[in-house]
Design brief:
About 75% of the residues lie in helices and about 0% in strands. It has helices spanning about 1-10, 20-40, 55-85, 90-105, 115-135, 145-165, 170-200, 215-230, 245-260, 270-290, 300-325, 335-355, 360-380. Helix 5 runs antiparallel to helix 6. The chain is globular, with a radius of gyration of 20 Å. The protein starts with a helix and ends in a 9-residue tail after the last helix. It comes from Pseudomonas berkeleyensis.
Length: about 400
């Protein structure tokens, strides 16, 4: 039976054998194209005819198109290790990916708004259902918080799409910003597990990092609270008392970074890229606190520190590391990836710290980073594992 299962697995084209393969590749290409298109519009190019306009498209697609694709690729692969049960592959994976792709294309195809909304919600609904089926069957209670955050993310998408349907810009902003901070919660949850583990392994450190469940639970609760404040509209106006949860988030993220830091990480691109990506969570939280206290003039600096620096940086670093491990390769990325990590962080810094006149350079840095990933990793993602394993 085991031989038969292996034979069946090997008969599946490599790109459809596990979730990370199609979603990492398509997500990286989408990140490149979507940001380039949005930047062209900001620089005066005529926008495409999409429901709600190009701002509504950009606002929705960065967390729910790009971010959710990579999250799905990572979790659909990780759940196999967590539960010991086979991950989604073959036609079920092709079907789920097809829904994601159709949802991206639906913005540009003349059709009813109801079709667009149905496709968007279908993808996240099917993804959550698959995760819940595997985690609940294996009684993986320690991973139930991930289901909670994914479910809240689905509610935020529904809120954003309701705003789109009603033509309510405020409702769209509330849903999209709440979703962005929920993505930050997922980055914190996943990063809290893998960054210390990858750091230990990458530096050949025998002693594992100490675990602090109270810190993880506090980060989860505080992150969900912040997202709820965005969804309710409270975080859209500056109030000094609302700086408190962001100050707490900053302290907790800073504590994690301090505990994980070892000098050796700066000589290993797969490590310093993860630590820098996580550091943008701290920058985003501090920036929101500063805005609520009246020290910053606009909260978009915090939003872009989170979207470009934290989400983009951690996603790129995680894809680079996970793709090597799950294709049976040594954990030595192509040398050009160090440039990709550096360019992405430089782009985030320019987007946050420089004026709008430098936006083009931030876009070039972002695009170059994902071009390098796609160029070097597409063959790995589309070919069988080098160790003969069917994954």
């Amino acid at each position: 039976m085991q031989l038969l299962d292996r034979k069946q697995a090997l008969s599946i084209p490599p790109v459809w054998r596990l979730g990370f393969r199609p979603f990492f590749l398509a997500g990286a290409l989408f990140a490149l194209l979507a940001v380039a298109l949005w930047a062209a519009v900001l620089h005066g190019a005529p926008g495409l005819a999409v429901p709600g306009g190009m701002l509504a498209w950009h606002r929705h697609e960065m967390p729910f198109g790009f971010g959710l694709a990579i999250i799905a690729g990572f979790l659909l692969t990780a759940v196999q290790n967590w539960t010991g049960r086979p991950g989604l592959s073959g036609w079920p994976l092709i079907s789920l990916f097809g829904v994601w792709l159709a949802a991206r294309l639906a913005w540009f195809v003349p059709a009813s708004l109801a079709v667009l909304i149905a496709l968007q919600l279908a993808f996240i609904g099917l993804f959550i259902a698959q995760m819940a089926r595997q985690l609940i069957a294996a009684r993986q209670r320690n991973n139930y918080p991930i289901l909670l955050v994914l479910s809240l993310l689905a509610l935020c998408q529904a809120l954003t799409l309701t705003g789109l349907a009603l033509g309510d810009d405020n409702l769209q902003r509330r849903g999209a910003l709440a979703a962005l901070w929920l993505v930050a919660v997922l980055l914190s949850l996943i990063g809290g597990r893998v960054i210390p583990f990858f750091t230990q392994r990458g530096l050949g450190r025998v002693e594992a990092f100490a675990t602090h469940p109270w810190l993880d639970r506090l980060l989860l609760a505080c992150g969900v609270l912040v997202a709820a404040l965005f969804a309710s509209g409270h975080n859209l106006q500056g109030h000094p008392w609302l700086a408190a949860p962001f100050i707490l988030l900053s302290v907790l993220h800073g504590l994690r970074l301090w505990r994980w830091h070892l000098r050796g990480i700066w000589g290993v691109p797969l490590l310093w890229s993860l630590h820098l990506g996580y550091a943008w969570l701290l920058v985003a939280s501090l920036s929101m606190a500063a805005w609520h206290l009246g020290w910053l003039t606009h909260p978009s600096l915090a939003s872009h520190a989170l979207a470009v620096g934290a989400m983009g940086g951690l996603i790129l670093a995680m894809m680079a590391r996970v793709s090597l491990g799950h294709t049976g390769r040594a954990l030595q990325p192509p040398k050009a990836m160090a440039w990709a990590f550096g360019l992405l962080n430089l782009g985030a810094l320019i987007r946050v710290a420089a004026g709008s006149g430098w936006l083009w350079l931030a876009v070039v840095c972002w695009g170059a980073a994902f071009v390098l990933f796609a160029w070097y990793y597409a063959p790995m993602l589309c070919q069988a594992r080098v160790d003969g394993h069917p994954g």
